Amino acid sequence: MATRADLGSVTEGLGAADVSPLQRPAPLRESVHEALTQMIISGRLQPGQHLVEVELARLLGVSRQPVREALQRLHNEGWVDLRPGYGAMVHVPAEDEVDQLLSVRTVLESEAARLAAGLADEESIKKLREICATGTDLVKKGDFEGAVRENAQFHQLIAQLSGNTFLADFAAQVDRRVRWYYAPVAPARGQASWREHARLITAITERDPEKAAKVMRDHTERTRKTYHETVAAERAKEEKAAQTTKKPAGRSRR
After folding, report:
1. Average pLDDT over every residue of 11-31
2. What pLDDT digit, counting tens, does each position of 61-113 carry?
3. Residues 136 and 201 in one domain
4. Which residues contact 48 (CB under 8 A, 6 or more apart)?
5. 76 and 162 belong to one structural domain
6. Are strands 80-83 and 87-90 parallel, antiparallel or unpaired?
7. 22 within domain boundaries
8. Which of 66, 90, 114 is the last residue of a domain?
């Protein structure tokens, strides 16, 4: 049991500036932050959209203060840009930014798949098959928002089955932003993504770690490639639209 002398030695040399008082939990602020994050991930708040505090407060049924605090935190986390004199805007990700994140995802998830192939039990494999079947059905129905959610659950379960808590935690952090970037390419990936998921389940069922890692690596790389192709196609479409709206200069009359 600690004595008074022991406790005194812990605080010896510490001044008021060295210790911050504990803060009481602020569930409302956390709830507002999580709600806005999910609205960005789901696309309800679009990249580049101006975020007006009073409008968000009215939408969420709260005062402006927790919204202001949430926007500052979202700015620190890279979800929102704060511009002096203009306010907050949903961050518009640069292409190289997405590329870097998806590269990290490839490393994390290929290792998770390799480990999962040696650890997953029959019940977990059954759950993977159920998610895969649901995702496939949602794509057939054109419900890509639902398919994105199932895709996130599939990858989250693979990370959990790795048995590595730190890997699963890192993968979960990356996955939140991947969901945001993945939504626009989900229609392009379509059923191909879920066929790749099925091949991954087969590799895990066969207890083949190296095959599982390769299938996952190829899967995440295809998603990255599709993202770049989608961005390039959208850019070309915008450039073509801009050219067609330009009117030819008329001849001057004298």
Report:
1. 55
2. 999 999 999 999 999 999 999 998 889 999 998 888 888 998 999 999 999 99
3. yes
4. 89, 90, 92
5. no
6. antiparallel
7. no
8. 90
Q: What are phi and psi of 83, to 5 degrees?
A: -115, 120
Say if residue 77 is in the same domain as residue 139.
no
In a domain, 6, yes or no: no
With 70 as the cut, is the pLDDT of residue 196 above it?
yes
**Residue 198 belongs to domain spanning:** 95-238
Label residue 253 by pLDDT band (50, 70, 90). Answer: very low
Pair 214, 188: CB distance under 8 Å: no
- 234 and 171 co-located in one domain: yes
Exposure pattern of 222-241 as b/e (b: 16+ CB <10 Å)?
ebbebbeebeeeeeeeeeee
How much is the pLDDT for 250?
52
